[in-house]
Amino acid sequence: MSLLQSEIDTPELVVAKFGGTSVADYASMSRCADIVLSNQATRLVVVSASSGVTNLLVELTQANVNDERRLVLLKQIAQIQYAILDELGRPQDVAAIIDNILSQMSVLSESLELNRSKAVMDELLSTGEQCSSILFSAVIREKGTASDHFDVRQVLRTDSHFGRAEPQIEVIATLTHEFLQPLLSHYVIVTQGFVGADEEGLTTTLGRGGSDYSAALLAEALRATAVEIWTDVAGIYTTDPRLAPNARPIAEISFNEAAEMATFGAKVLHPATILPAVRQKIQVFVGSSKAPEMGGTWIRHQVEDTPVFRAVALRRDQTLLNLHSLQMLHAQGFLAETFATLARHKISVDLITTSEVNVSLTLDKTGSDSSGQGLLSESLLQELSQHCRVRVEENLALIAIIGNRIASTAGICSRVFNVLENHNVRMICQGASPHNLCVLVAESEAAQVVNALHQNLFE
Ligand code: ADP
Ligand code: ASP
Ligand code: MG
């Protein structure tokens, strides 16, 4: 077998990301450290905050927490860190850094009472990942391998859109080569997912679930050979295994299909994760850190099997905006104006259907920012109301059937609509992409619809 020159020059480099449940406690971290050490090519580790910590931090950022509750939350976070420190035998240097971060948490949460600054909220939200990265690195060292933690804010440059910051790809590449890459030949480096910094060095976050994205961005900057996403399921399944017990793991899936799944709610991957991987053609692996021997899913540029039906994804918490305007009839510019208004409010439209005098748009609440601030502000609604009548519907769920050639295969709609015959479908979108067919239903019926579709299409 002959190797390409680029393959000879570039040594293998794997970036491994471990999610919240994978770094929940000492035993989980220790299992994950074994996964890292089992592959010499794994030199960079990206971690989430220990399970539950980001939720506690989000609660600390909310306006309605009183002092008593604040202390309870801080104590809960501290207990999670100290339990891990205790198992490590409380090394003094590590304990001192953790204590310092815990007191920063206290100061930051207190300062939010006076000034509800989004920059301070992000600084506070980032402390969960700061703790887990320091502790994980200590667990690797305990196993006899040189390891250090690395402050990702040195390299993961973003804009200043706190709570949902946009990464700046080229700057990240330059900074990574200068500050991170040289360390990888000496240490297994452990760094924080979810966190970045703007040009002024202020801490930003990438939105909930953003650690997958961080891992892919760093892999892109380092031109890694693969990114491994280690989580609590053995890969990407035909649907969320929590919803359908008969869901099956998928061995191999294309970038396109995986991107659609992530976009349409398969929480196992943050929606933006695939973008950097596609840009650099980096393979992505998804597996379970509790059962690495079970294997998982490989996401690749090209795959052999491209079935018509690949998976069913569910995204809860959808908002439907119905805009009505008689001016729209045979007129131009109404949609342009609407989209411009939404863009000014940093809202990305998801699905769209139109009729003569109505436009319906869905907005994804899971796309709100890290501290869970809502999407629809009063000022946005007021602006929209100036040129149309606005009706807002909540408590909806979007179900996407993901696959290949969906728009060009006969009989798909009849199979899907047969399953849906007893449900009220609020909106249907099909045709724009060959990879999906989406229906909007009441949140209360969502699980039932996903199960029925899964049974009919996959079992
Ligand atoms: P982590 O904390 O490791 O990032 P997440 O909770 O974000 O983990 O994602 C893993 C979860 O994604 C699983 O526990 C599962 O319930 C959910 N999930 C949703 N859709 C799918 C799917 N199609 N395949 C696998 N898991 C899925
Ligand atoms: N800790 C962050 C969250 O819970 C980021 C992540 O886990 O991906 O959303
Ligand atoms: Mg996740």
TrEMBL record:
The lineage of its organism: Bacteria, Pseudomonadati, Pseudomonadota, Gammaproteobacteria, Alteromonadales. Keywords: Amino-acid biosynthesis, ATP-binding, Kinase, Nucleotide-binding, Transferase. CDD domains: ACT_AKiii-LysC-EC_2 (cd04917). This is Aspartokinase. Belongs to the aspartokinase family. Its EC number is 2.7.2.4. Residues 13-287 form the Aspartate/glutamate/uridylate kinase domain. GO terms for molecular function: aspartate kinase activity; ATP binding.
